[in-house]
Structures are given as structure tokens and as C-alpha cells.
Amino acid sequence: MVKHIVRMGKYMPATNEGELVLYGLGSCVGILFYCPECKYGAGAHVMMPTDDPIGVQSDRIIQEALTSLLVLPVQVEKMDTYLIGGADIMSLPSISIGTKNITYARQVLKQQGIATWYEDTGGTKARSVSLNPENGILTIKSNGNTVVLNKMNYVKECINR
Length: 161
Prior knowledge:
single chain; CATH 3.30.1330.200; five-stranded mixed β-sheet
């Protein structure tokens, strides 16, 4: 399967012909959008909020990722949205860039009327994440640990508890 690597400060769409991959989400936040009906996804690797002097036009990146989905017959309320990353990897209490990035990403998604289906955010460890649009499987790797999330199995597991 082809890997579509979403680089820092960029976004990328993917169909069922390839997997979206975001490496090295330390304080950066990865936002993944997925349409289960059309098997199409998009990812944004957000560095810093745009109000930050060294921010990388995060509003534009998120908006372009969304726009790449909305040209298809996708309904925003039926999209799965994942928020990954935002670790505070520097041990300086006065600087919590990861926390700032998480807050910012949530705010932008809320303004767009988009609910986050799943989050793996915060902490002190960097993450990498991949999304396979063909089957909707999300894989998160961090510090030697791997979490594989299949929404259908996850929903069934929660219902059966």
C-alpha cells in the first residue's frame, strides 16, 4: 500500500489506494478526517497556532484538508475526526506548546461544527499515526507501544460492556 506522508505544516488527502501517515507528532497535532461511506480521508500536521509569530498558517492547513473532503459528497456530521499528538515534550513548565496546540485545534474544529470522534493527546511522548481509508483503521505508535483502533470493533466493544 502506498504511504502518503503528511509533512509538518502540510495537509494531504488520500483515497482507499493509500495510507495517510503523520510521523513525529511531538508538540504538533495531527488532525485526521475520515469518511467511512466514501473511504476517503485527509490529514493535517499542525505545527503551531497562527497567532504564534512562528506559526505555520494552521488555519489554512486545516481548512484545505477539510475542503479536500467537502468537494466529495461528504457530510461533515458523518465524518470521523481524530486528534492526535500535542505532547509537552519539553520539560519547561512555562512552555506548554503541545497543550496550546491541542486547545487551538479543538477551537478550530468547534468553529467548523466538527466533533472529534477520538483523541490521543497530551502527555510527554511523541506519537506517529496512520489512517487506512480503505478500512478506517487508525494506528498510533508511541514509545514502543502500538494502539490499533477499528471504529466498528471499538463501538461494538463499548456497547457490549
